[in-house]
Every structure is written in structure tokens, then in C-alpha cells.
Design goal:
This protein is of the alpha+beta class. It has two domains: about 190 residues, Fructose-1,6-Bisphosphatase, subunit A, domain 1 (Fructose-1,6-Bisphosphatase, Chain A, domain 1); about 130 residues, 3-Layer(aba) Sandwich (D-Maltodextrin-Binding Protein, domain 2). The protein contains nine helices and 17 strands. The strands form four sheets. It has an eight-stranded mixed beta sheet with strand order 4-3-5-6-7-8-9-10, with helices on both faces. It has a five-stranded mixed beta sheet with strand order 12-11-13-17-15, sandwiched between helices. The protein has a two-stranded antiparallel ribbon with strand order 1-2. Helix 1 runs antiparallel to helix 2 and helix 2 runs antiparallel to helix 3. It is globular. About 45% of the residues are buried. The structure holds 2,5-anhydro-1,6-di-O-phosphono-D-glucitol and manganese (II) ion (3 copies). The site of one manganese (II) ion has 3 residues, from loops. Pfam families: FBPase (PF00316), FBPase_C (PF18913). InterPro entries: FBPase_C_dom, FBPase_class-1, FBPase_N, FBPtase, Fructose_bisphosphatase_AS.
């Protein structure tokens, strides 16, 4: 009855068939990433039943207190992806240094960056969280991969995706050929293509920002939000709606579903800490920018296209403003004035 449904494995293999010179390496890698996300989904889903909620009692390189699930998800990603011979190295939010593939395994030609658990402050309150990943190519002549090999602009990404652990578990994927969404059928343990060709409407009347930072915002962001809040009485002449989930994966998924704007912009508080933004370029901003652009949206720092940035450090942070194209153009215009 269900055998006419497309599984993610079938989708990936059939897509790669059209790529000249494809060896199956990339399909194998995506398959391992999918497996890792299924394992994390299961763990997140069982929550308190298996004792995985709460703090791990230590900090990561970002100075954030790690949740148990941050550490466990990181471990699952490493173990699922290190053995198969597709990767040269990995990098994660939860590891200060890059993770070169151990010598006991064959070394492959790709690099994998990931945010193993995004929105992890939401685990204890049972609100949606996710996993974000990005795949880069490792240069052929690299013998021992270093942090430097990861510092490629987002335009070099071969693939990017996220898993969303919400009421359903979903996987959203781009290999630079549009965006497709898959829903995990828990009964058979497979992601099924349920959202082919996802696109972001160019216009929206919905925005997402952490308004507790309002007093720190720069004038262009303040202006945009003020105009939204003024509603039909203001210059926009229409009422706007607002959301803030505090899980970027869930916000981006909403935007891919019904449009919207997501902002974690530069502000005075971030600047005072000497940081370039809140979100991390290599495993949050770039993969999400790739997905959003592939769905017809736009992703900027305010002044530049995120995917054009030349990364300078593994855990570099950047401002992120992404979503419906016409609104992002408007916000970019406000930054240019
Ligand atoms: P992470 O849980 O991977 O550290 O990322 C959290 C990020 C992002 O998902 C979310 O948009 C933002 O931080 C929430 O920040 P605030 O708590 O400042 O709202
Ligand atoms: Mn974190
Ligand atoms: Mn995150
Ligand atoms: Mn995280």
C-alpha cells in the first residue's frame, strides 16, 4: 500500500545518478548523516524516560553550558560518520578543535560541519529542537586536514540540511538543486519525501526576533521592527505577526513552510562581548543560508550575503537575517542608508 512512496535513500541515489563521475561516496555520506539524525530523534523523543534531559555540567568553546543532549548528539554524529571512508574531518559546535578521521578508518574527500543539537535550551521544556549540517569538499592535496581546510565560503557547500525534532521528525535537504522535505515514518524507520520542491514566498507579514534585545539593536533593525509593530497605522499599512521559538531550525522550517523573516542581528551587547554575532557561520548560518537561497529566499548579515563571507575561524559568529526575499531586500536597504 505504501510502496510507491519515495524514501530519502532512494531520492539521494536517484539524484546522484545524474551527477557525472559520482562514486557513491556522497550518497553514502548523506545516508550516514540521516542515520545519525534518526538516532538523535529517538533519544530526544524518549527524553526523561532515558534520563537525557538537563545539563552536562560543563561548558563548550562558546562559553555555553552544555546540555546532556548536546554532548550525546555530538557523539552520535561522530560515531555515525567517522567509519565509512567518506570524510577527511569533521567540525562541530561542541568541539573546540576539528575532528580528523582516526587512522584506523579510511580517509575520504569530504568535510562535515554540524550543530548536533540546535535550540538545546528548549530540550528541558519539550519544545522543538534540531540538527544542522553542511558538507564541503576537502582539497585533493590535503594530507592532514586542519581548521584552515574548513574556512571555505558558503558558496562552496556541496550539501546542507537540517533535521527538525518536532511533533514529526523531518529532514530538509539541499544539494544545490532545490529543497526537499522528508518526514520520518517511525513505523518503518525511514524518511519519506513529503515536501518536494519547498519554496519561500517572496512576501510575508511575519517576523521572528528575540525582542528582549531591543535596547541593543542597531538603527536599521530597530526601524524595520518598529515599522512592523506599527501595523496598518504605520508606513507598511499592514499588521504583522511575530514568533520566537529560540530554535533556529524550527524558525527556518516555519519560514520554508509559510514565509517569514528571521533575525539574529548584530547588536551592542554582542559587540561589547567582542563577538561578530550570535550564530555560528560554519554550522548554523551557512547551511541555513544555502537552504533558504535554494528555496528562493535570501540570507544576509545586514550588509552582505552570508554565503559570500570568507570565514576566518572555525567558530566564527555572524549576524543572520534571512527569509522572504522582498523583506530581506528591504532590510538590506535600511542597512545601506
Ligand atoms: P544552540 O542551541 O545550538 O546553541 O543554538 C541556539 C541558537 C538558535 O537556535 C536560536 O535561534 C538562538 O540561539 C536563541 O537565542 P536566544 O536564547 O538569545 O533567544
Ligand atoms: Mn549551543
Ligand atoms: Mn544552534
Ligand atoms: Mn547546538
Amino acid at each position: 500500500m505504501h510502496n510507491n512512496r519515495t524514501t530519502i535513500t532512494q531520492y539521494i541515489i536517484e539524484e546522484q545518478r545524474h551527477v557525472a563521475g559520482a562514486t557513491g561516496d556522497f550518497s553514502g555520506l548523506l545516508n550516514d548523516v540521516v542515520t545519525a539524525c534518526k538516532v538523535i530523534s529517538n533519544l530526544v523523543n524518549h527524553g526523561a524516560l532515558v534520563g537525557v534531559l538537563g545539563s552536562a555540567g560543563q561548558e563548550n568553546v562558546q562559553g555555553e553550558t552544555q546540555k546532556k543532549l548536546d554532548v550525546l548528539s555530538n557523539d552520535i554524529f561522530i560515531r555515525s560518520n567517522e567509519w565509512a571512508g567518506h570524510l577527511a574531518a569533521m567540525a562541530s559546535e561542541e568541539m573546540e578543535e576539528i575532528y580528523p578521521i582516526p587512522a584506523r578508518y579510511p580517509r575520504g574527500k569530504y568535510l562535515l560541519t554540524f550543530d548536533p543539537l540546535d535550540g538545546s535550551s528548549n530540550t528541558d521544556v519539550n519544545v522543538s529542537v534540531g540538527t544542522i549540517f553542511s558538507i564541503l569538499r576537502c582539497a585533493d592535496d590535503v594530507v592532514e586536514p586542519t581548521e584552515q581546510d574548513f574556512l571555505q565560503p558558503g558558496t562552496e557547500q556541496v550539501a546542507a540540511g537540517y533535521a527538525l525534532y518536532g511533533p514529526s521528525t523531518m529532514m530538509v535537504l539541499t544539494t544545490g538543486n532545490g529543497v526537499n522535505g522528508f518526514t520520518l515514518d517511525q513505523n518503518i524507520g525511514e524518511f519519506i519525501l513529503t515536501h518536494p520542491g519547498m519554496t519561500i514566498p517572496a512576501d510575508t507579514r511575519e517576523f521572528a526576533i528575540n525582542a528582549s534585545n531591543m535596547r541593543f539593536w542597531e538603527p536599521p533593525v530597530r526601524r524595520y521592527v518598529d515599522e512592523c509593530l506599527a501595523g496598518r497605522e504605520g508606513v507598511r499599512g499592514e499588521d504583522f505577526n511575530m514568533r520566537w521559538i529560540a530554535s533556529m531550525v524550527a524558525e527556518v522550517h516555519r519560514i520554508l513552510t509559510r514565509g517569514g523573516v528571521f533575525m539574529y542581528p548584530m547588536d551592542e551587547k554582542i559587540r561589547a562581548k567582542g563577538q561578530g554575532g550570535k550564530l555560528r557561520l560554519l554550522y548554523e548560518a551557512n547551511p541555513m543560508a544555502f537552504i533558504v537561497e535554494q528555496a528562493g529566499g535570501a540570507a544576509i548579515t545586514g550588509r552582505e550575503r552570508i554565503m559570500s563571507l570568507q570565514p576566518e575561524a572555525l567558530h566564527q559568529r555572524v549576524p543572520v537575517i534571512l527569509g522572504s526575499r522582498n523583506e530581506i531586500e528591504r532590510i538590506e536597504g535600511y542597512h545601506q542608508r
